[in-house]
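Researcher: Quick one. two chains, 232 residues in total.
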Amino acid sequence: DQQVKQNSPSLSVQEGRISILNCDYTNSMFDYFLWYKKYPAEGPTFLISISSIKDKNEDGRFTVFLNKSAKHLSLHIVPSQPGDSAVYFCAGTSQGGSEKLVFGKGTKLTVNP
Amino acid sequence: DVKVTQSSRYLVKRTGEKVFLECVQDMDHENMFWYRQDPGLGLRLIYFSYDVKMKEKGDIPEGYSVSREKKERFSLILESASTNQTSMYLCASSPSLAKGAGSATGELFFGEGSRLTVL
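Model:
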């Protein structure tokens, strides 16, 4: 039972354009969602998060949108840069639960110069 | 800065060998986790620990065990390595939300990973 789904294994965009990475979830108990970025041969690094009581959180070029009714969130990167090329993981967590993150399978983003 | 250190970046072992993967964190975090990452499968939780000497199974504990004798150290043990355990292993830590400490977002801090190849 996949609680967090990233249905696009890969995405390719041109430098300077917008990258939109999507994530769906099934667990209504999630109250925080996080995005991680991972380069090959390195550990994931935290990118941005959003509380379930909000619908948008912005940090520089990165914005996460949450649509609770659709159980859907998305990460927007504007403008995209070649250094953004990495695998992006979406994750959900329940603060009243076990404090562990449940990850999606990831989306590999390639930003072409 | 939080630092999570994994003892070996790259290991090559033979089928049947016992393998130890060590992880140390320096931020006095209560929670520690072991994940494995495989292409197309994402990050899957093997085991986690909320406190010293406490451990709980994650989603894929079969073939693995863990040890947490000290708060800062969490070890993953493969009793008899098999080829299907070839993977990238990632250790992570986080402060306990129940104790009112640290990030309110449940953020995990990851180590750089240990790439294990079992021949």
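Chain B touches chain A at residues 4, 9, 31, 33, 35, 37, 40-45, 48, 50, 56, 58, 90, 92, 94, 96-98, 104-113, 115 (CB under 8 Å).
Researcher: Thanks, that's what I needed.
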